[in-house]
Specification:
The protein is built from twelve helices and ten strands. The protein has 305 residues and is α/β, with parallel strands linked by helices. It has two domains: 92 residues, ATPase, nucleotide binding domain (Nucleotidyltransferase, domain 5, 2-Layer Sandwich); 173 residues, Nucleotidyltransferase, domain 5.
Length: 305
């Protein structure tokens, strides 16, 4: 029986599965953060450990690792060298976008929007991958949990500066961060990674559902930006009726944000097919591996995106 190892490594957790050729999960392991840009050493350690836990007795065909932050070719290549040496089988390290898009679309053309701790919009046309966003929270992660969290904090400090009453927002943020005042909040923000700030996205969504105006404005703005950039990549690729799939905690678990994103996207692309059903990124390994096997080795670098 042929098998393949598939890893989805994000800013919060790393998930590895062993798949048979029918895409059935035979083994599964969870470890910590696998974002290579946030902490390469930690990401490498967690990815390696997850692979060890899933390694079968018989040698698998390959391992495909979709890791946030692997868009830098140097990160991808360094981790590939390490994994090939550690396990002695072909290793392909790509960003988390391509793995998820092959899970959602298989051989079809279309778009996948990832909105979790970070975000990226991935397009696939004739086997070629294009992306939009995914630049990190400092440069451009439209509609990501981190972006929502930082924007919510920015709104709160603006309310404090203006002497505006925002007790509901203030209490919710302080409770979520485990702090008691703005001084402790500032210390927390500047001493914690973006994955910790991203948990405020759920706070924003809960507040928005209850009618809190500041949270609603943040989520509407982020949903509008994510939908706008999604539509931009869709048009750039010349799509008309292709599918748009979504994955990630923000779209999957934040009802208010999800609703606003879908509304904005349907307004911008009325003929597109919006598929909001959950996508499991680890199930894209076989489709990606077969695509890689069908191209020449010289083309492989095109898939380090």
């Amino acid at each position: 029986m042929k098998t393949i190892l598939s890893v989805d490594a994000g800013g919060t957790k790393t998930r590895c599965v062993l798949l048979n050729e029918e895409n059935r999960i035979l083994k599964e392991a969870l470890t910590g953060c696998g974002n290579l840009t946030l902490d390469f050493a930690e990401g490498k350690k967690n990815i390696t450990e997850a692979l060890k836990q899933c390694m079968p007795d018989a040698m698998p065909e390959a391992m495909v690792v979709g890791a946030a932050g692997a868009g830098s070719a140097s990160y991808a290549e360094e981790l590939e060298v390490h994994l090939k040496k550690a396990f002695g089988i072909p290793a392909h390290v790509i960003s988390d976008g391509p793995l998820a898009i092959y899970s959602a679309l298989g051989e079809k053309d279309g778009i996948l929007v990832i909105s979790g701790t970070g975000s990226v919009i991935q397009g696939k046309k004739n086997g070629t991958l294009e992306r939009c966003g995914g630049w990190g929270h400092l440069l451009g992660e439209y509609g990501s949990g981190a972006n929502i969290g930082y924007k919510l904090l920015t709104v709160l400090v603006q309310c404090i500066d203006l002497g505006e009453n925002a007790v509901e927002l203030e209490n919710a943020v302080y409770h979520a961060l485990g702090v008691t005042d703005w001084r402790e909040m500032v210390a927390y923000v500047y001493s914690h990674p973006k994955a910790d700030i991203a948990k405020l996205a759920a706070v924003a969504d809960t507040l928005a559902q209850s009618g809190e105006g500041h949270a609603k404005s943040v989520l509407i703005a982020e949903a509008h930006a994510l939908a706008g950039w999604t539509a931009g990549l869709y048009r750039r690729l010349g799509f008309t009726t292709e599918e748009i799939h979504t994955v990630g905690g923000c779209i999957g678990h934040l009802p208010y944000f999800r609703m606003k994103y879908a509304d904005f996207l349907r307004e911008a692309l009325p003929d597109a097919v919006l598929c909001m059903e959950p996508v499991d990124p680890v199930l894209g390994a076989w489709a990606y591996w077969r695509q890689v096997m069908s191209i020449s080795p010289d083309c492989k670098e095109d898939y380090h995106v």
